Amino acid sequence: MAANAPALRDSRALAGIIDHTLLKAEASRAEVARYCAEARDHGFASVCVNAVHAGFVADELAGTPVKTCVVVGFPLGAGGAEAKAAEARLAIAAGAQEIDMVIDIGALIEGDLARCRADLASVREATRGAVLKVILETCLLTDAQKEEACRLAQEVGADFVKTSTGFSTGGATVADIGLMRRVVGPHMGVKASGGVRDAATAWAMVDAGATRIGASASIAIVAGATPVANAGY
Predict the structure, then answer these.
(1) Which residues are catalytic?
(2) Helices 174-184 and 199-208 sit at what angle, rounded to 10 degrees?
(3) HSE on the CB side for 151, CA within 13 Å?
(4) For residue range 4-18, what is the model confidence (pLDDT) as tens digits?
(5) What is the β-pairing status of strands 18-22 and 46-49?
(6) Residues 231, 138, 28, CA angle at the centre, nearest 5°?
(7) Closest by Cα among 127, 53, 58 to 96
(8) Active-site residues (predicted)?
(9) pTM of the shown model
């Protein structure tokens, strides 16, 4: 079993690796506050939000083990290395402990690995002391490109590779999680995100090598209920 994967197949163990995620543009502070309360109650790993909510979430979660997670370069990854690094530094200053950044997808696809690596390294440097997860957007990549992205993320010292934003043409698959785990080995984190909406799917991702799950349907996942249909995560 990969490092940090839950050893026990129960809802509390699963909750402990879920990033309770609210990334829709119209999210209100009341809704963000509800997600924070749910994360505290269920023992989720983090609450993952857009940067505008970073300080608010950090305040809501103060004194709890639940982390504040903020996305950077989201959802396209096309804002440029300096912009992503600045965004990450601001999020951390506001209280974020984990950063989920979108890779430079265009550079990766066209084979400009130097630009792609520089993008990753810039954000890694800006996030020293925080957890960095690198979003590959696997639905847009060939298997060879997924493997290259995993290697680049590992080279710069990222903590996780992550499948998806949840806002593109597809989300996490068991096959992609297995591929990513094979490339990065047993010690780096692998996060499944996008379309994980029930416990069976979440456990399948864990069995394939995921050590973190990103989901907006987190309550349904741990309760074994049928989630309400929603966009994105």
Answers:
(1) 100, 162, 191
(2) 30
(3) 9
(4) 877 667 788 999 999
(5) parallel
(6) 30
(7) 58
(8) 100, 162, 191
(9) 0.94
